Fold this protein.
Amino acid sequence: MGFDFEDLSAGDTIETINDPVTLFDALPNKKPGYGYLRAVQKEVLDAWGKRRGERDLVVKTNTGGGKTVIGLLILQVCLNEGKGPSLYLAPTGDLAGRVREEASHLGLDVVDDPHDPQFLRGEAICVTTMYHLINGKSRFGMTVPGSRHQPIPVTSVVIDDAHAALATMEEQNRLNIPRDHDAYEALLDLFADDLQGQNLAQFKDIQERDPSAVLPIPFWAWQDKQSSVMEELHPHRGEPAFEWVWPLISNLLPWCQAVVTAESIEVVPPCPPIEKFPSFAQAERRVYLTATLADDSVLVTHFNADPDSVAKSIVPDSAADLGDRLVLAPQELNPDLTHEDLRALAASVAEKRNVVVLVPSKRQAAEWKAEADLTVSTTEQIQAAVKQLTTHHVGLVVMINRYDGIDLPDEACRLLIIDSLPFAYTGIERREALALQDSKAMVGRQLQRLEQGMGRGVRSRDDRCAVLLLGPRLTHLLARPGNADYLSAATRAQFDLSRKAARKLGAPDIPAIREVIDLVIEGDPGFRKVSRQALLGVTYNPAKVNPTATHLRAAYNSAVNARAGEAVQHARAAMQAAREGGDAPLAGWLGETCAAYEHAVDPVAAQKTLDDARRSNNVVLRPRAGVEYERLPPPSPQSQQAATYLTSLYPTGHALTLGLDAIMADIDWDRARTKEAEAALAALGRHLGFTAHRPEDEFGRGSDVLWSIGGNTYLVIEAKTGADAPKIWKKDINQLAGSVNWCQQVYGHDAKIIPVMVHQTHVVEGTGTPPQNTRVITAGKLKALKAAIRQFTRAIASDGQCRNPADVERHLGYHKLLAGTLIDTYTQTAYQEPPRS
């Protein structure tokens, strides 16, 4: 028998080490380059060791802080302590593969199959994705009747990039019934009267396949007709559209939110039913690895994590280990820079360097068609593009709707461009986006999403990247005072440096911006020095858990355990927390949730709760009894009204410029964003010194938009910004006629009504009869109006002129934006085709 060094081994083995730092040092088969832990990793692992007995722990480090090694060492120690099986969940299959590769470099045993005997015996870590755990056929087993697999007991779980995993959770818990499915028409018929009671015009838009139309099924109708809903859906439970989701939500249907769009009916529970997955829900140790995002409330709502533990996240002593990054919003520095200018800049950089552009939609990606060397949207396409970027020069790559779950280190991306804010895509998301708009809750979400996106280009302490932020809405969001507080401390420090650079640039042209970008890309020593200085002394934000999240999860937990009265109390507490936090729109939105729980206890009280909620947020459901219309007050003299409104809304002329640019950008010919266009038209009216609102959306009757322009004169506006037909169809012109009649009835026959259609053409189908004196804001007229608003804005933004009614009136007059000239200048008379003989 040959010589065996194992014979010299002491009694204690590596498998008995329960300190992760000691374990790392003792691992015998690490690859070269793994000789020492980073200081950040050691700090975090030491802190975890002291708190390992807590069930929910959040570990935060900057991007590139070595979270993967931290997670693997934690799970291996758990195995050594007999706290196995140990499960590592990554957000995507590609990232799970990289985790397994990292484990191999450490010399740790891992598997990818939850039924592997090594995993089940606690001898190896299972590394897989959130998708493989959370689905209606989970191989980890579920606590639902008919589950194909017995639940696998797991003691220790690490969720990597926890915020990125949330999207998977939400998708896996959404029942999406496509329009061509039999159940779609059945449910549409079942709830037709209820939907029409909410908004008749929207119901007709859904019937006519308008992609922007969204209608919620009222919770009282949904709950009261549950037997019929189950009768329609249950027979389809084994079909492809249902089988992966049905086991998760079938016994939660009464509590679900249901929304109808032209493409599908969506059914979603109030919170993800994580309790149905014992492998996670009953695990003794759950560790969430996250980036340095400011708000961890979603870990409570989505994972049912303990809010007290989440609020005490484990972080390194310093947050200064972030790579070098300069973030510029060129259109904030110089509002006259065009999108075309900036695309040309990006293309010139891409001649020698890799440039990645993140866009929210295919429509926005089309803007980059001439400059893009590659445009990708699917998971497979994006993974292939990332592989190319990390191995060689590709040029300019456009990625659609991907803000997390990808790594673009070093030469893979030296210039990162985020073009426009992420859009809401599902019906439920679109409805929530309209309800919350500029609320604190929505601003926080948008900026966290933005920070996730910005993190794609800097993946280590030694990495560097220039970041450009484009689009009026995004630019306006970042420029608003106080919004930077939603970002992590390190990102805020980099923003402060970026603003200093911006002030030095003044109002730069493209060559000046290119010069700064080149300095960043080339690793200019001066830039790297000030970048490191900016981060000196920066520490991590205190963990934040919004109290609304705690109450909302508690409400859901009570409801699914047949304690509806308790659920109402928790939901009401969530409303109160939002109100106390100064977020009235969120309080109103949560009022609808509260009313939905309350309907099961006291239907009459639920309607009163809903009525109260609408006073804070008019996007929530209309009560069963309807909503009384509130007449627009007459405006003050136009220039006085405008000056007062603008002064109250914008602290500086620069903020005014960015704000109005953002509004005008939303008035666009986009079928998917007609609601945003309607909101922008109403906002434009208020900015010009009129009073305005959206009667159809706010009260369920009337026109899309209504302006009161003084002198008992009203513009009745129907916005068809989603139309691309060569003429105005009869149904659309008839809708305008109906709105004119409504306005005349409400405001009296002595009111002067001016019918206005927003449509790309002024030609009306021959069989349609336009109301007398109908005017149209055509594509050409809208272009002229935007140009005038742009010039007007820049004029009154100068030297505080927006605060002086006389100056405002002078510029309104010059640009023909006064009530007496606006219509003749920026609309044209509708032309009715001769009827066909």
